[in-house]
Specification:
Blueprint lengths: L2 H27 L5 E13 L10 E9 L6 E4 L2 E7 L5 E8 L3 E2 L4 E9 L5 H6 L3 E15 L2 E2 L3 E11 L2 E3 L6 E2 L11 H16 L1
Antiparallel strand pairs: 1-2, 1-11, 1-12, 2-7, 3-6, 3-8, 4-5, 4-8, 8-9, 8-10
Helix pairs in contact: 1-3
Bound molecules: 2-acetamido-2-deoxy-beta-D-glucopyranose (6 copies).
Keywords: Membrane, Transmembrane, Transmembrane helix
GO cellular component, one term: plasma membrane
Protein name: Protein NDR1-like
Length: about 200
């Protein structure tokens, strides 16, 4: 066998090995962000059938947090929630913090919360018909991979919730909070992976 033939074979083997190593590394380090959704939402002040002396300004909701990783647990930092009434003034109506916690692999959590919505004339809002409330969520998460934890990764999500004349969210299903922004990947693993794909197409 010529020297160049041996070199070529060796090079081929190296590329294949490096490629699989990168693939397995990528598969084991890849993380998926938690999925957050609003499962129920109720503003008694907007329930038009409730004509009693109810002057409650409380806003009730269930926040669902799902760890989408089957082999990594998630550490949540304190979760900040802001509610904004989307009328012309876009008034902030309430803030809430949910304490951080550790969530096991592939687990989900339901947080039943309520917030006192101040400074809003709910009677006037109710008379106006449908209402839209915006929810913004901010936290940071770390993932535990085997024995070590990743760096903090910011999680900023939001959604708009349409509220009907019963004071309930219009959508009967859970409302998933989304980020609007693309996933900020940019990890070294991704670079190695792209390089390997490039080499694969170019030379094999
Ligand atoms: C709205 O008020 C009515 C009358 O009290 C009550 O029957 C109904 O359950 C309330 N709606 C919700 C979603 O709680
Ligand atoms: C308020 O509720 C009572 C029964 O609880 C009902 O008789 C009355 O008609 C209601 N009023 C309005 C304005 O809906
Ligand atoms: C709500 O109603 C209670 C009694 O029904 C009253 O004492 C209280 O002042 C009211 N609150 C507001 C903000 O109107
Ligand atoms: C929400 O929090 C900010 C900053 O802590 C505060 O300025 C604002 O008044 C709060 N809004 C409501 C509606 O509580
Ligand atoms: C009611 O709707 C009108 C028109 O959309 C808007 O100008 C007004 O600010 C609303 N009022 C309340 C209390 O939401
Ligand atoms: C909530 O509102 C406060 C004050 O307006 C702001 O500093 C914070 O970034 C907001 N949080 C979210 C999650 O939007």
């Amino acid at each position: 066998m010529t020297e160049s033939g041996w070199c070529c074979k060796c090079c081929f083997k190296f590329i294949i090995t490096a490629g699989f190593a990168a693939l397995f590394l990528w598969l084991s380090l890849r993380t998926r962000k938690p999925k957050c959704s609003i499962e129920s939402f109720y503003i008694p002040a907007l329930n038009q059938s409730l004509n009693s002396s109810s002057n409650s300004t409380t806003l009730y909701f269930d926040l669902r947090l799902k760890n989408q990783n089957k082999d990594k647990s998630v550490y949540y930092d304190t979760i900040y929630l802001n509610f904004t009434l989307l009328d012309e003034a876009r008034r902030p109506v309430g803030n809430l913090t949910v304490p951080g916690f550790h969530q096991g692999r592939d687990k989900k959590a339901l947080r039943k919360e309520s917030v006192e919505a101040r400074g809003v004339d709910w009677k006037a809002v109710s008379r106006n018909g449908s209402t839209i409330v915006r929810l913004d969520l901010a936290t940071a998460v770390r993932y535990k991979i085997l024995l070590w934890k990743t760096k903090r990764e910011n999680l900023r999500l939001g959604t708009e919730i349409k509220v009907n004349g019963q004071g309930l969210k219009d959508n009967p299903h859970g409302i998933t909070l989304n980020s609007g922004a693309a996933m900020p990947g940019g990890s070294l693993v991704r670079v190695i992976w792209s390089f390997w794909v490039f080499v694969w197409w170019k030379f094999l």
